[in-house]
Design goal:
By secondary structure, the protein is α/β, with parallel strands linked by helices. It is built from ten helices and seven strands. The protein has one domain: Alpha/Beta hydrolase fold, catalytic domain (Rossmann fold, 3-Layer(aba) Sandwich). The protein has a seven-stranded mixed beta sheet with strand order 1-3-2-4-5-6-7, sandwiched between helices. The model has no long low-confidence stretch (mean pLDDT 94).
Length: 256
């Protein structure tokens, strides 16, 4: 069986697992790693088929979660960004004894817009899947540009995300399509209401992929969880506002 790429660093006494989003890899966390590794024992992983975790095809959300948990620390705080937030949430639902606290960043239990639920239009995700087969590198770059749209540092932030992709082997079209399938079809809204561990949800005020309205809707259905909306940030708040992002995480973990 193929092994996932894991890297552990930091001197803290609490384990923190970071899960990246669609199309990217664990290098996306480098901008906040120095600060977080001073507080936690940080575990970085390239999700199956992404970055240095090669040799995997398209996977379901459950299959991805099962592979990730196999090499994970016994008990940790799990922080997942975007699609990584879905993976972290699925792990918290299916392996609650392994998760001491859950943090989702610019993520949603249901990424696709449904009746009464804001999200990405189904035809947009289907369009990306169609475009992947024609020019997958340009399609990934367009998706990354959407993630920084509206921020004061949008061009610089998009370049950072693009560089993260280019530093490692590109995921295959099959893997990328599988990830888009997860974003298009998964709906964990009902299950998430039953989570027992502390939950923090971080959003970007300008996020065009996970609208901030999601925060208010989950505040109602998950009153015991906490949400923070970072002003002037879009889909990647830890890239555009690293100091503020880390402060939110550290403050919440101290009280969790």
């Amino acid at each position: 069986m193929n092994e996932l790429y894991w890297h552990t660093c930091g001197e803290g006494d609490r384990d923190l697992v970071l899960l990246h989003g669609w199309g990217l890899n664990a290098e996306v966390w480098r901008c906040i790693l120095p600060r977080l590794s001073a507080q936690f024992r940080v575990h970085l992983v390239d999700l199956p088929g992404y970055g240095r975790s090669q040799g995997f095809g398209a996977l379901t959300l459950a299959q991805m979660s099962d592979l990730v948990i196999r090499q994970a620390p016994e008990k940790a705080i799990w922080l997942g960004w975007s699609m990584g937030g879905l993976v972290a949430s699925d792990i918290a639902l299916r392996y609650p004894e392994r998760v001491s606290a859950l943090i989702t960043v610019s993520s949603s239990p249901c990424f696709t817009a449904r009746e009464g639920w804001p999200g990405i239009k189904n035809e947009v995700l289907s369009g990306f899947q169609h475009q992947l087969s024609e020019d997958f590198k340009r399609t990934v770059e367009r998706f990354l540009a959407l993630q920084t749209l509206g921020t004061e540092s949008a061009r610089q932030d998009a370049r950072i995300l693009k560089d993260v992709v280019l530093t490692q082997q590109m995921p295959s079209v099959e893997v990328l399509n599988g990830g888009l399938d997860i974003l298009r079809t998964e709906d964990l809204r009902e299950q998430i209401a039953g989570l027992s561990m502390p939950l923090l949800r971080i959003y970007g005020y300008l996020d065009g992929l996970v609208p901030r309205k999601v925060a208010a809707l989950l505040d109602e259905s998950r009153p015991k969880s906490e949400s923070v909306v970072i002003q002037k940030s879009a889909h990647a708040p830890f890239v555009s506002h690293p100091a503020e992002f880390c402060e939110v995480v550290e403050t919440w973990v101290r009280g969790a």
